[in-house]
Amino acid sequence: GTAAKLVASDVKADLAVLVVTRKSSKTALVRLGRAALGEQVTAAGFPLPGILSGLNITTGNVSSLAGGEEGGTVLRMTTPVQSGNSGGPLLDGGGNIVGVVVSKLDAVRVAELAGDIPQNVNFAITANALVNFLEAHRVNYRPSPERRRLAPEEIARKAAEFTVQVECQRTK
Q1: d(CA 159, CA 92)
Q2: Are 30 and 131 in contact (CB under 8 A)?
Q3: Please, which residues bridge with residue 49 across strands?
Q4: How far is CA 29 from CA 72, 90, 144, in A?
């Protein structure tokens, strides 16, 4: 694999910027402003490494903005994610970043507490929180100039151009 260089990180924001060398000149665009309740979103990532292979694309909707209001940091979505999706982009209908996948609800624990198995309760860091993080660390980003709609397969193609798998390894 290719080594990555840590440029900036913030444990509280649950975000980090890594620089990798790769041949693509494509860059993800960040949509400024918040995602809308009910908006269709797409997650791109590399879940369950060692079990699944290649880029995985899943779609869902923004199910709650609780914590994701203007200036908020987290939104809830129905887009299916697994371990390994964390840090991957959450994209709008134009393939622009509206969030960064961060976690899913612990279904087993909730089932033990509530007696019901929750489905599709997943979380992403909002684009506003991402932009604040990038600006605080003087990391350049490109805002999206438009909000055009793309077919799902076009969103997947765009995501494949700027999404890479990152694996952490301990060094001795």
Answers
A1: 11
A2: yes
A3: 52
A4: 20, 11, 5
Predicted local distance difference test score (pLDDT) of residue 48: 80
Identify whether the C-beta of residue 31 lies closer than 8 Å to the C-beta of residue 96.
Answer: yes
Residues 6+ apart with CB under 8 A from 11: none
The answer to whether 132 touches 30, Cβ cutoff 8 Å, is no
Report yes or no: 23 and 2 within 8 Å, Cβ to Cβ: no
Q: Is the dihedral of CA 160, 161, 163, 168 positive or negative?
A: positive
* Segment 80-108 mean pLDDT: 85
Q: Which amino acid is at 140?
A: N
- For residues 132 and 127, what is the distance between their CA atoms, to the nearest angstrom? 9
In terms of Cβ atoms closer than 10 Å to its own Cβ (0-12, 13-18, 19+), residue 11 is exposed
pTM over 0.70: yes
Positive or negative, the CA dihedral 148, 62, 14, 118 is: negative
pLDDT category at 89 given cuts 50, 70, 90 is: very high
If DSSP codes are grouped into helix, strand and coil, which group holds residue 114?
helix
CA distance 130 to 2: 25
Q: How far apart are CA 97 and CA 1, in angstroms?
A: 25
Query: Stretch 118-138: mean pLDDT, rounded?
Result: 88
